[in-house]
Specification:
Elements: E1 2-4, E2 12-13, E3 31-33, E4 35-38, E5 41-44, E6 48-49
Antiparallel strand pairs: 1-2, 1-3, 3-6, 4-5
């Protein structure tokens, strides 16, 4: 999971997470995306902006 305050120009990675560690953050006015790595290639969703 990546978080950004400028629409993805600069971002920080959240995690890694497991059952013993979570990252409960206020994401209002942040852009977020999910990424996965498979066979050495990275795949990411588009950026989602949380404005509610």
């Amino acid at each position: 999971m990546d978080r950004s305050t400028d629409g993805g120009k600069n971002w920080t990675q959240c995690g890694p997470f497991n059952k013993q560690f979570s990252n409960d953050l206020n994401n209002l006015h942040y852009s977020m995306r999910a990424c996965a790595r498979f066979n050495g290639a990275s795949f990411c969703t588009g950026w989602y902006y949380d404005n509610d």
